[in-house]
Design a protein that fits this description.
This protein is an all-alpha fold. It has one domain. It has 14 helices and no strands. Helix 4 crosses helix 11.
């Protein structure tokens, strides 16, 4: 029996695009939620790990019903992927508490460039001009952002954000190596491990959260992580990988805009220049050169 390779109907492609747009908008709320008043009331030395821990546990609870438990299996690559995700999770949230939302999300998106290098080394993937171009743009963008704040108040946060991008490249590589596994299972495992690794430490903080703070953290886990991931998974079934990658770049654009509109946080000009370079490299990568795998940025 022959297998049909016909493209999906136009209506399905349009629906997929809408789902991806909704997912990108929902993902972009991370900066606004982490920087809102109730979360800022948590002492800064505890804020990053605490929010990072509980938000992924909420996300795991949302994704769990969609896992086909009878089909799960253990593979060694799961270890590296989950540990990388756990590092990314706490570093990204901590970066949001110590630098601007713009710098945190732009530096997080450098994970695609780092994943390209790791893919060559670990997966023996073929180097291509598009990825080298994106890497060059990313390095220029990083230089702009870091150098401008070398003696500024955001330097520590920017370096932590860069670390989150580096660590998340390990997740991207893991997702590529495990592409034959259930997507819901991989996201659930990443989330539950990232939460449980932090939980014993977080419980020693002695910080009591009020109802509003629990609601915001729950929103981060459910509305900013769990639900948009499921929408993304549905959207990429009918939308080409390169187009999906470009659509989800909307997250990086909207994230600092929401924080500016609602909380009046203004990022330095150098951050916007550097961020534009990073995103421009990705746009060039997925338009002028052959498309590759969808960058799994959205699980930040």
């Amino acid at each position: 029996m022959s297998v049909s390779h016909e493209p999906p109907p136009l209506s399905s492609i349009r629906r997929g695009r809408v789902l991806l747009l909704i997912a990108a908008v929902m993902w972009s709320s991370s900066g606004l939620l982490v920087k809102c008043g109730p979360i800022r009331a948590i002492p800064i030395e505890y804020r990053g790990p605490l929010v990072a821990c509980y938000r992924v546990l909420f996300a795991a609870a949302v994704v769990a019903p969609f896992v086909s438990w009878r089909q799960i299996r253990f593979r060694p690559a799961l270890i590296g992927m989950t540990l990388s995700y756990a590092c990314m999770n706490v570093l990204y949230v901590t970066a949001l508490t110590r630098t601007t939302a713009a710098a945190a999300i732009f530096l997080q998106y450098t994970s695609v460039a780092w994943a390209f290098l790791l893919g060559i080394v670990l997966l023996r993937e073929r180097a291509d001009r598009g990825s080298w171009t994106a890497l060059g743009f990313a390095l220029c963008g990083i230089a702009w952002i870091i150098a401008a704040e070398w003696h500024g108040e955001h330097l520590t946060g920017n370096l932590i954000a860069l670390g989150s991008g580096l660590s998340y490249s390990g997740v991207v590589i893991g997702l590529r190596a495990l592409r034959a596994e259930q997507a819901a299972w991989l996201v659930f495992l990443n989330s539950i491990v990232a939460g449980l690794v932090l939980l014993p430490w977080v419980l020693t903080f002695g910080v009591s959260l009020n109802g509003v703070q629990w609601s915001v953290i729950g929103g981060l886990g459910v509305l900013q992580m769990g639900v948009p991931y499921l929408l993304f998974a549905l959207g990429v079934r009918t939308v080409q990988a390169s187009e999906a990658a470009l659509i989800t770049l909307l997250e990086a654009v909207l994230n600092p805009i929401w924080v500016w509109l609602v909380l009046s946080e203004v990022a330095p000009l150098a951050t916007w220049i550097g961020g534009t370079l990073i995103l421009a490299g990705l746009v060039v990568r997925y338009t002028l050169f052959s498309p590759g795998a969808v960058p799994a940025i959205a699980e930040d």
